[in-house]
Amino acid sequence: MECELIDVHVPFETLRHKMNPLYIRLKTAAKNTLGTLMMVMPMLLSVIALAGLFETLVTPEMIQSVFKGSPVEDTLIGTGIGAISVGQPFLSYVIGGELLDEGVSLYAVTAFILSFVTLGVIQVPLEWSLFGTRFTLLRNSLSFIFAFLISIATVTIVGLLS
Amino acid sequence: MLSVVGCMYLLTFYFNPQAGQDALLAAFKILKMIIPILLVVFFLMALLHTFIDSKSISRHIGEQSGVRGWVIALVGGILSHGPAYVWYPMISDLRKHGARDGLLVAFFYTRSIKLPWLPLMVSYFGLAFTVVLTGLVILSAWIQGMIVDKLTRVFEE
Fold it and tell me: Residue B25 and residue A153: Cβ atoms within 8 Å?
């Protein structure tokens, strides 16, 4: 009867590799993923630090003060202000509600809510470094244009429905 | 960029120490909030690297993905949580493996639909507003994706 001899001096890691090829793939994948995350980490931390700075320095009162009363102009301003604002999405609803109470048009408030989440000036450098100029330019330009168009369409449709 | 942001903090601390402290606290709060999402992203990226090859990425969200690709992008955007920049490393990874730009743009746009916050939106702006806005966001995410796909083809020719 033949029996296979196991070399007890083979390190445990090597034995595990031989036994489970999935282990090697997982380990390599985790290493690659960690490498990618470590590469983007400085940029990610910068974005977070910048978000903290904006959240503190740009107050809801400052946002309210820039609206002028003209629906078209205010919609553009709303899109722009939403793009530079940062924070939890619910904050845009709260600020939007306050803006409506102050007499700002629903067009502007809708544009503000949309661009608050879809546009982000502070994250552009990270997006640019990972996706390139063309993608970043295209995505942000379309988001800006569509925030304007959707706000007009939403208010018009809601007006017709009510 | 980190050094530029560092300088901005130094300036804030110099001119208004209280604001600098508040900003630092706010940044730590954001960091604390995104760490679980970052772990999820890390886990998903490791899974993608291990089990999904470029061929299957291309089949599901690549050039030939069809309706399935749109559904994955639109639903994925609605279901993903946290700030967009947390998802950038994973999405750029998918792009390197053959994911289509149009679908990625659609994914990023439907991220503006925040399911957990919809009840709050209804309470502020009403049900009709919320339903119409949500529908238009999904529709426009698809239109934007189509535009990007068309333009990408034009640029590459």
Answer: no
Tokens of B107: 């994914």
Cβ A115 vs Cβ B111: under 8 Å: no
| Token couple for B154 | 């034009």
Q: Which of A26, A36, A43, A48 has the highest number of chain B CBs within 10 A, making it the mutation to test binding with B?
A: A48
- Distance (Å) of CA A6 to CA A1, A17, A20, B78: 16, 15, 17, 53
Q: Domain coordinates of chain A in residue numbers?
A: 58-161
Write the single-letter amino acid at B124. Answer: Y
Complex ipTM value: 0.81
Distance (Å) from the alpha carbon of A10 to chain B's nearest alpha carbon: 26
Phi, then psi, of A76 in degrees rounded to 5:
-65, -45
User: Cβ contact (<8 Å) for B117 and A32?
Assistant: no
Q: In this complex, do A51 and B30 lie within 8 Å of one another by their Cβ atoms?
A: yes
pLDDT over threshold 70, residue A4 = no
Which pLDDT tens digits describe chain B residue by residue (157 residues)? 778 888 889 999 999 999 999 999 988 888 888 788 778 877 877 777 777 776 777 778 877 788 999 999 999 888 887 788 888 888 988 898 888 999 999 999 998 898 888 888 898 899 999 999 999 999 999 999 999 999 998 888 7
Q: What are the residue boundaries of the structural domains of chain B, listed by start?
A: 52-156
Query: What residue spans of B2-126 are helical by DSSP H?
Result: 2-15, 17-51, 54-61, 66-79, 84-96, 101-110, 118-125
Report how far apart, in Å, the C-alpha atoms of A137 and of each of B49, B62, B101, B144 are.
Answer: 28, 21, 12, 13
Look at the block and give the residue holding tokens 């445990």: A12
